[in-house]
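Section 3.1: Structural characterization of target chains.
Under the original work plan, the team committed to producing a structural model for every single-chain target entering the pipeline before any wet-lab resources were allocated. The record below documents one such target. The sequence was received from the expression subgroup and is listed exactly as submitted; it comprises 171 residues.
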Amino acid sequence: MFTGNQASPLERRHPILTGMAAGLVAGAVAGASERLLDRLVSKKQKRRDRKVREGSAHQVAGPRFASKLLGRRLDPQEKRRVNLAFGVVYGLGWGLIHGGLRKRFPVLARWGGLPFAIPFFFACDGVIAPALRLSPRLDRVPWQPSVKEMGNHIAWSAAAEWVHRLAARMR
């Protein structure tokens, strides 16, 4: 049984590459999860959500940072490009963080990464996004969009964990 602290020669020699790959794959999976789970959020909850924020932290972060950096508003095509770039950087960064934490704390790798996913959601949506003014505190966001975001973090963590487990099996 995999405990989370077993590593293949590949993962031992290239833990950074494994973490980065895990983050990129997980980002793609979370994108698909976002589209799927968004269908489950009612129109009423979406309207309530738009009253407290212009979009999820993931949707507004890239364009907001790029707009501040460039000192101007972005057109829709630029926003799409920046969102893609932000998603890649986010995936790479969190992939590295996840890889390091799961190695140090093997319990985070259990149950498909669920012990990482829940704190990951609260760190991102409950602390980091409000601190950077990308999103209001969780108690102001309607419950369905919050549950959807937690589902996205669970999907992200499960996909990242899958990549690590796949790398551990490569001999």
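Residues 9-169 form one domain.
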